[in-house]
Amino acid sequence: MGKGPGLYSDIGKKSRDLLYRDYQTDHKFTITTYSATGVAITSSGLKKGDLFLADVNTQLKNKNITTDIKVDTNSNLLATVTVDEAAPGLKTIFSCRIPDHSSAKMELQYLHDYAGICTSVGLTANPIVNFSGVLGTNVLALGTDISFDTKAGAITKCNAGLSFTNTDLITSLNLNNKGDALSASYYHIVSPLTSTAVGAEVTHCFSTNENTITVGTQHQLDPLTTIKARVNNFGKATALIQHEWRPKSLFTISGEVDTKAVDKSAKFGLALALKP
């Protein structure tokens, strides 16, 4: 996270990445190419059951300005312009989805040694305004994330988070869904040499009085191959193996089984990402 506390989205990110990132039961293919002028073109395809989704993203960087234009199979166009370091520590992001012109949004991110602020506002007559802020250091940070619908005159999102980071240990506590869900997460580096880590997340929903517990681990078999596994209290066990067969090109196989219903077929997912 650097010197400062980072943004609100950084609270609990390490444990979320360990427990959920790269797991999938679909088939995904991504290929990135670069033109002679430095334009990056990324084509992605995702097969979810009988449904196939695809998109093409074109990225152009010019000094501190990055422009992304993505077109998907539903003829939606998403344009994003990012201006990095417009002022020290400041990042400006403008995004718009066409034909949904009401989706236009302006976002500002500001990073300081003791604060991380992100605010966004929809560019409409009655916009949704989002604000998140974090105060603290790279060791201890406290933050909040709030959304306000100016048309309805109501708060639509209100979250709060606390994180503690040590050399090999990260813990966080989040109060989400306007106080209805309390989540605690834990991430611990067991061996830096093999990127071995363990993590857990416990969530309690006050309205349903239901608990969700997920634990997971990762281990690097060799410099190019990583395995991950997780299980939750509902009996869903998932594992993956990811191999970097060439620089930045990854091949991932995932599998999920319901241990409480072993008669059901296991789910498998494949992901292939190619970069030159």
TrEMBL record:
Belongs to the eukaryotic mitochondrial porin (TC 1.B.8.1) family. InterPro entries: Porin_dom_sf, Porin_Euk, Porin_Euk/Tom40. Forms a channel through the cell membrane that allows diffusion of small hydrophilic molecules. The channel adopts an open conformation at low or zero membrane potential and a closed conformation at potentials above 30-40 mV. The open state has a weak anion selectivity whereas the closed state is cation-selective. It comes from the Eukaryota. Keywords: Ion transport, Membrane, Porin, Transmembrane, Transmembrane beta strand, Transport. GO terms for cellular component: mitochondrial outer membrane; pore complex. This is Voltage-dependent anion-selective channel protein. It is found in: Membrane. The lineage of its organism: Eukaryota, Viridiplantae, Streptophyta, Embryophyta, Tracheophyta. The keyword NADP does not apply.
